[in-house]
């Protein structure tokens, strides 16, 4: 089978909600990383076969196929198409999968895969509110098939995060300690310049991630739950909303030779699995098991893991089930500290994973994340 290679991976700094990137149009934020990738790698822009971007809640400034819009906003040739993917929080990880699959099929050679999300201007609830304006209550309530199968069971990330915490024995105090460590790792990485190679500063706006913050367990303990029904789930143990974009250059062996490119990693494995949508956030556990079995590997083969910190309980449950060491998981902090820009998170995590493998001299890295509908992508890359 043909191989898919990662030649480059870059991301914007992560802007906190209502922060330095809050007024930046989604197309321009996406264009920011597109320009950087194209200019750095010497492949003629007209030779790109496709642009595949992840995005969630594609309304307002993110509507109208943001992948295509961002490419054009970057001043790139009109002949190159773009398509936008929505697999909820895993959208840009799925964009990477689709790009790799196109290359591995032999039908395309040069693809830009990434994602963008502007949560300051388009909050996570925007699509649901738009639906309510059209007379719909939730995406599920009017479906006879859904109601017959699941009834009125809540499809709610906070409900799921609390349920997972209770099932796996993650107390509020333990989750707050986990969250504090995420911030500590992120702040250390920023101070030590760990992210400097992967972040493309937005000139005049933001040079580096602004979401991580100093805190204490005492401060976290004073926060009210997001809902009284979920007493352990506070803002402190949840990922922060933010604005960001990220992109990777995925190419074939033919393209490596044609453009004299140096591959930095190979897509070793890609898969996606699903779990109960009411549990909502548990799929990374069976998805990881499935991926390792398909790849003929064990977690002993994996040098580093990036798993999205949608909530502390999600990662803590994954760690407990797999037995993988926290010391090699989200080593530079996770989404609790660095933000979860929804449709951009998959490409953002992959960018960080690649750079950290290079920094440490590791060989294999695994990435996974929980996604709406009880889904999870898993990607294993091999550093070259």
TrEMBL record:
Active site positions, chain numbering: 89, 340, 370
Stored InterPro entries: Thiolase, Thiolase-like, Thiolase_C, Thiolase_CS, Thiolase_N
Family stated for the protein in its record: Belongs to the thiolase-like superfamily. Thiolase family.
Molecular function GO terms recorded: acetyl-CoA C-acyltransferase activity
Keywords attached to this entry: Acyltransferase, Transferase
Segments forming domain Thiolase C-terminal: 262-383
Protein's UniProt name: Acetyl-CoA acetyltransferase
Domain of life: Bacteria
Gene3D superfamilies: 3.40.47.10
Protein's UniProt keywords contain Transferase: yes
A Pfam family of this chain: Thiolase_C
UniProt source species: Pandoraea terrae
Record keyword Metal-binding present: no
Residues in Thiolase N-terminal domain copies: 5-253
Lineage of origin: Bacteria, Pseudomonadati, Pseudomonadota, Betaproteobacteria, Burkholderiales
């Amino acid at each position: 089978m043909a191989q898919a290679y990662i030649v480059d991976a870059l991301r914007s700094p992560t802007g906190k909600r209502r922060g330095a990137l809050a007024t930046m149009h989604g197309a321009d934020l996406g264009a920011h990383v597109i320009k950087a990738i194209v200019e750095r790698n010497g492949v003629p822009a007209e030779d790109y076969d496709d642009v595949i971007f992840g995005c969630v809640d594609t309304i307002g400034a993110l509507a109208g196929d943001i992948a295509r819009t961002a490419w054009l906003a970057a001043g790139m040739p009109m002949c190159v198409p773009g398509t936008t993917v929505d697999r909820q929080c895993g959208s840009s990880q799925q964009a990477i999968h689709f790009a790799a699959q196109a290359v591995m099929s032999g039908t395309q050679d040069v693809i830009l895969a990434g994602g963008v999300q502007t949560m300051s201007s388009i909050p996570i609830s925007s699509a649901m509110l738009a639906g309510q304006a059209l007379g719909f209550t939730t995406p599920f309530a009017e479906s006879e098939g859904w109601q017959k199968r699941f009834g009125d069971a809540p499809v709610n990330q906070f409900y799921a995060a609390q349920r997972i915490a209770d099932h796996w024995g993650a107390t509020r105090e333990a989750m707050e300690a986990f969250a504090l460590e995420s911030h500590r790792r992120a702040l250390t990485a920023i101070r030590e310049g760990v992210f400097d190679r992967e972040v493309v500063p937005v000139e005049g706006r933001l040079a580096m991630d602004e979401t991580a913050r100093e805190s204490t367990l005492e401060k976290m303990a004073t926060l009210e739950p997001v809902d009284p029904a979920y007493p352990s789930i506070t803002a402190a143990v949840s990922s922060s909303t933010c604005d960001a974009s990220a992109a990777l250059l995925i190419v074939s062996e033919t393209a490596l030779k044609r453009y004299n490119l140096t591959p930095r990693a190979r897509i070793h494995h890609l898969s996606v699995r699903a779990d109960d949508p009411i549990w909502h956030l548990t799929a990374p556990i069976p998805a990881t098991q499935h991926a390792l079995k398909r790849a003929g590997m064990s977690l002993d083969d994996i040098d580093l893991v990036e798993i999205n910190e949608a909530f502390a309980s999600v990662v803590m449950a994954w760690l407990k089930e797999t037995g993988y060491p926290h010391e090699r998981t989200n080593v530079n902090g996770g989404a609790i500290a660095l933000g979860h820009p929804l449709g951009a998170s998959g490409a953002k995590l992959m960018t960080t994973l690649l750079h950290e493998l290079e920094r440490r001299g590791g060989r294999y890295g695994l990435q996974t994340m929980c996604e709406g509908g009880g889904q999870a992508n898993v990607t294993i890359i091999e550093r070259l």
